[in-house]
From TrEMBL:
Belongs to the protein-tyrosine phosphatase family. GO terms for molecular function: phosphoprotein phosphatase activity. The keyword RNA-binding does not apply. This is Tyrosine-protein phosphatase. Pfam families: Y_phosphatase3 (PF13350). It comes from Sphingomonas paeninsulae. InterPro entries: Prot-tyrosine_phosphatase-like, Tyr/Ser_Pase_IphP-type, Tyr_Pase_AS. PROSITE patterns: TYR_PHOSPHATASE_1. The keyword Ribonucleoprotein does not apply. Keywords: Plasmid.
Length: 261
C-alpha cells in the first residue's frame, strides 16, 4: 500500500457510505493529490451533518454514475450553497445497480460472488456508462478543483472508474487493488450492508445474510475480470481507455499534470 494511512482516507459520515479519498498514492509521475479525488455511495440518506461534511470538501464537480431511474428513486440532497457541477446522463447506465442485477432469490454466497464476477465481464461496455466514464476523464483533465464520483453502492461502477484513473496515472497495481478492496473495510460496514440490502430485498425478497454480504462486497477477481474483458475487446486496458473512452495521450498528460504533485 501507499505510505498514506488507510484511516486518513475515510470521510466519516453517518449515512453516506463508502466515502473516501482515493488520492495520495505514489505514481511514476510523483504523488497523486490528496484531498482532490473522492468516491462514495449515493447521498440519498445523508443527514445535515453529512451534508456539512460534503460542503467542507470544496467540490468542483460530482460525477453521478447512476442511471435516470436510480436518480429519480433516490435523489441526492446537496448542502446549502452547493455549486459544484453535477455530471449525469438522462438515460440508464445499467438496468439496475450491478449488485442488484446480480442478485437471485435464494442464492448462496458462492453463487452471489460468481454472479458479481460475471457482471464485470460486460459492465465496462454498457454504452451509457462508457459515456459517463468518458465525461469523468474529460472533467479530470479540465477541472481545477476536487471531484467526487459515486454510483449507488460506490463499489462497482465507481470501483472500475477509480481503478482506470489509477491505471492512467500509473499507480502501482498493488495499490490500485488495495484501494478497490477498501470497500470491504471502510466505514460502518453493517450499516452499509443494511442500506444495500434494502434495495436488493425490495426486488428479490428475503436473502441470506451471507449472500447479501457477498453482493455488497468486492473481490479481486471482479476487477480482474473487468480488466481482462477490456483487454480482450480492445487489445489492452490502454486500448479501452483511448478507443472506448477518449483518453488520448494528450488527455492523459493533462490528467497527470493536474492530479500529481
Amino acid at each position: 500500500m501507499s505510505e498514506t494511512d488507510t484511516i486518513d482516507r475515510v470521510i466519516t459520515c453517518e449515512r453516506i457510505h463508502n466515502f473516501r479519498d482515493y488520492g495520495g498514492y505514489s505514481t511514476s509521475h510523483g504523488r497523486l493529490r490528496s484531498g482532490w479525488l473522492y468516491r462514495s455511495a449515493q447521498h440519498f440518506d445523508a443527514n445535515a451533518a453529512d451534508l456539512a461534511r460534503v460542503s467542507g470538501l470544496g467540490l468542483a464537480v460530482v460525477i453521478d454514475l447512476r442511471g435516470r431511474s436510480e436518480r429519480r428513486e433516490a435523489p441526492c440532497p446537496r448542502p446549502d450553497g452547493f455549486d459544484a457541477e453535477i455530471v449525469s446522463i438522462e438515460d440508464e447506465t445499467v438496468t439496475q445497480a450491478p449488485h442488484i442485477e446480480a442478485a437471485r432469490a435464494e442464492m448462496t454466497a458462492e453463487e452471489a460472488r460468481a454472479s458479481m464476477a460475471n457482471a464485470y465481464h460486460t459492465m465496462p461496455f454498457r454504452p451509457v456508462l462508457m459515456q459517463l466514464y468518458t465525461r469523468y476523464f474529460e472533467k479530470l483533465a479540465e477541472v481545477d478543483g476536487p471531484s467526487l464520483i459515486h454510483c449507488l453502492a460506490g463499489k462497482d461502477r465507481t470501483g472500475i472508474a477509480v481503478a482506470l484513473l489509477h491505471h492512467v496515472v500509473n499507480v502501482h497495481p498493488d495499490d490500485m487493488m488495495a484501494d478497490y478492496l477498501l470497500t470491504n473495510v471502510t466505514g460502518n460496514i453493517e450499516a452499509r450492508v443494511r442500506a444495500g440490502g434494502r434495495h436488493v430485498k425490495a426486488r428479490m425478497g428475503e436473502m441470506s445474510d451471507d449472500a447479501l454480504r457477498a453482493l455488497m462486497s468486492v473481490e479481486p477477481m471482479f476487477l480482474q475480470n473487468g480488466f481482462k474483458a477490456m483487454a480482450e475487446q480492445y487489445g489492452s486496458i490502454d486500448g479501452y481507455l483511448s478507443e472506448g473512452l477518449g483518453v488520448t495521450p494528450e488527455r492523459r498528460e493533462r490528467i497527470i499534470a493536474r492530479l500529481t504533485v
